Amino acid sequence: MTGTEDPTNDEMLVQTDVSDGLSASSSSVSETTNAETIIRADDINVWYGDEQALQNISMEIPENSVTAMIGPSGCGKSTFLRCINRMNDLIDVARVEGELTLRGKNVYDADVDPVALRRRVGMVFQKPNPFPKSIYENVVYGLKIQGIEGDYDEIVEESLKRAALWDEVKDRLHESGLDLSGGQQQRLCIARAIATDPEVLLMDEPASALDPVATSQIEDLVEELAEDYTVVIVTHNMQQAARISDKTAVFLTGGELVEFDDTQKIFENPESQRVEDYITGKFG
Ligand SMILES: Nc1ncnc2c1ncn2[C@@H]1O[C@H](COP(=O)(O)OP(=O)(O)OP(=O)(O)O)[C@@H](O)[C@H]1O
After folding, report:
1. Which residues of the chain have pLDDT under 70?
2. C-alpha distances in Å from residue 14, one per residue of 80, 104, 272
3. Domains delineated in the chain
4. How far is 270 from 268, CA to CA, in rounded Å?
5. CB within 10 Å: which end of the chain, N or C, has fewer?
6. Which atom of ligand 1 approaches the CA of 75 most closely?
């Protein structure tokens, strides 16, 4: 997107679609083990045309935790993430089978409005991509599009504080979001995603385009966000998954979920030899 175009990318789609129907800090594993399940996948299969991208995926994601999705390129991590807020609906050739519940309600039921669902399940993408609007307007974009009323000044301040950006931008709220650094832009996108008060935040490699300092800020932020939200994050960075997540799902080639467990267990004592080989760098 250039600075002059209106937003037309997936981010805007999420923002415009997010109009209703549906993190952990590195809190200790034991804290999350008993947490309530917010998302449950049951035998999810996804095809793009004739190609199967996910096979019989089942997992339970606890609320207020960080769940990392790791695995080699093309193993279906992003596809799974997009099942949660039905972004795959937007891909003509994609077909999803199985049940995926959010607080017990199958998001694929006929009576679920995907627009409403995406209000409850926000998304942050790989490339920081604020709209060519002011910082303030970026944060309130989803609210305006969805016709959500409220004290916008307060929501902007609260969202930017939660995204750990307020102190850096409070004196320039009406300057362009595009003038921020990459890391600030990504935190602005996070502020925009949380302004509509979702329950779940999906993050697709949110730090992969950032330098180490900005990456570390995003990691700290993800941990903080998990106090209020359930965060599901795709990452290629295994150290990052180990640092910030409570649960880790390891997908391997062919769209198979090979292991899903507490992050500590996955990294210290995985059940599967294939997972051990992957995390120790023997392949992938
Ligand atoms: N829009 C699409 N149309 C057709 N095939 C797709 C589409 N999106 C993904 N795929 C295919 O589905 C499989 C899984 O892709 P996906 O992007 O979910 O994997 P990933 O693990 O997230 O990969 P990466 O780590 O490289 O982002 C791949 O074979 C990919 O080519």
Report:
1. 1-34, 283-284
2. 16, 22, 36
3. 10-35+63-90+113-279 (3.40.50.300)
4. 6
5. N
6. 21
Rounded to two decimals, what is the model's pTM?
0.88
* Residue 87 neighbours by CB under 8 Å, 6+ apart: 10, 13, 14, 81, 118, 123
Ligand 1 contact via 192 beta carbon (within 6 Å): no
ipTM of the modeled complex: 0.98
Give yes or no for residue 88 CB within 6 A of ligand 1. Answer: no
Residue to substitute in 45, 46, 75, 236 for testing ligand 1 pocket (most ligand atoms within 8 angstroms of CB): 75
Distances (CA, A) of 254 to 61, 74, 76, 96, 275: 22, 8, 8, 16, 14
* Contacts with 94 (C-beta within 8 Å, 6 or more apart), sequence order: 46, 47, 48, 79, 88
| pLDDT score, position 284 | 60
Residue 134, phi-psi category: left (phi > 0), alpha (psi -120 to 50), beta (remainder)? beta
80 in Cβ contact with 69 (< 8 Å): yes
Return the ligand 1 atom nearest residue 46 CA. Answer: 12
Residue nearest (by alpha carbon) to ligand 1 atom 28: 74
Residue 125 is encoded by which pair of tokens?
Answer: 């993408």
C-alpha 74 – ligand 1 centre gap (Å): 5
Q: Atom 26 (ligand 1): residue with closest C-alpha?
A: 73
Q: Whose CA is nearest to atom 2 of ligand 1?
A: 48
Classified as helix, coil or strand, 196 is coil
By the 8 A CB rule, do 44 and 83 touch?
yes
- Give the model confidence (pLDDT) of 1-31 as tens digits: 333 344 444 555 555 433 333 333 333 333 4
State the DSSP H helix or E strand holding residue 268, giving kind and residue range, or none if neither: helix 263-268
Backbone angles phi, psi at 153, to 5 degrees: -60, -45
